[in-house]
């Protein structure tokens, strides 16, 4: 399975202590050079910079064979490169959070999942406590509509009652 990630999901999964979910589901995760740079940026949380400085073997940087096309210029560099890399490799999945980038990836027929989807899948697999993970996520700068959190928690409660 070929999976390409943008900066945001890696950043937030590191911050909440659940980054190891990615190799559990996907084995290897590929990122473009700009995502690697963003994860090392001085403005990135120290915990994330520490993690990326000792990046695990399952995270691999891949160079783009050609620059992203100009139609992606409305996105930030990391998002542009992640979409371009996913297209270049014929990725099976793209992990991205930002609304505009998700929409563009879907428009380009890429299969998309975000941090919340990864957490939901991990809870379904019994890898984490979803209410706790969402609580930790809400302590970061991650923005999510309260209605979506409520919906995820209700779904999780219903799933647990049936188990």
UniProtKB/TrEMBL annotation:
Q: Look up the domain of life of the source.
A: Bacteria
Q: What is this protein called?
A: DUF3368 domain-containing protein
Pfam families xref list = DUF3368 (PF11848)
